[in-house]
Give the backbone structure.
Amino acid sequence: MNEEVFQKKIDSEQKIEPKDWMPDGYRKHLIRQISQHAHSEVIGMQPEGKWITRAPSLRAKMILLAKVQDEAGHGLYLYSACETLGITREELNEQLHQGKAKYSSIFNYPTLTWADMGAIGWLVDGAAIINQVSLQKTSYGPYSRGMIRICKEESFHQRQGYEIMTQMTQGTAEQKEMAQDALNRFWWPSIMMFGPHDADSPRTGNAMKWKIKRKTNDELRQNFIDKTVGQADLIGLKIPDPDLKWNEERGSYDFGEVDWDEFWNVVNGNGPCNKQRLNHHRKAHKDGEWVRDAIKAYAEKHK
Ligand code: 3HC
């Protein structure tokens, strides 16, 4: 009976709230996805954070600082949404540190030049916007409300990245080359952010049935590509995909095949920076223990 009532609520576009009955599978699916989303936001601070002290101007430094701080806040919203499903922040961190929880593959690539800050804002946040705008309509109330808040900040993230890329393509020949090199290194990993093809995506079936996802991985990937190619053309950058071609009939771009071996290699922990990212997170978490203890002691004393 409960399952039927639950599915009827989903089908009639009612939001599911923390106190509502929900199938165990729905709860577990959400904990998995929201925790990975939150971990992605926090780990994603590392590749960009590295360039705050190397920003080429005070303005650039302030913008990057604001963006990285935003990502911390996004992680906070999402961890809080995840906790409403009955899991603690400590458990979530434990799962990350033990390699039991994933985070987005994109953050396991190194950021080698300032142009990478442009490519990440433009492509990674651009891809995240496509995914997160769709997730605003997810069936779980706290996740949906968190997404609405996060999406308000993401467009600034994407625009500041595209501004960096635009400036560099209009700069010296070396700067334009740096921007093209960043696009060459970040294009395919950004495409991989949308996950495996729908046919190879074990979670998409339930995700669509329970309206956790509103669009599939392939739909979102295609939206992103169709939206981004013109932006690259506008600033004279070339997308590193020889098979990229406008398909008049489909009204979309045809594009080459993703290197799925690379994708799964990175997702399974063997990308260029996976170990470094997790070690950094473990150390930062340990170093921050005294802050958490002080807050707990203060709360205890003043309750
Ligand atoms: N990186 C790491 N893991 C990935 C992945 C990726 N790019 N794509 C898929 N996976 C994992 C899935 O988590 C799943 O693992 P699990 O079964 O252990 O949970 C497995 O690969 C199979 O993939 P599925 O497509 O079946 O899984 P999903 O239905 O969960 O789809 C997803 C994957 C599209 C990433 C979906 O989980 C999702 O939309 N997550 C929320 C959005 C998100 O996490 N975005 C990450 C970036 S956040 C960001 O960029 C912030 C920005 O401000 C910079």
User: Anything to note?
Assistant: Strands lie at 245-247, 252-254. The two ends are 42 Å apart (CA to CA). The mean pLDDT is 97. The longest strand covers residues 245-247.
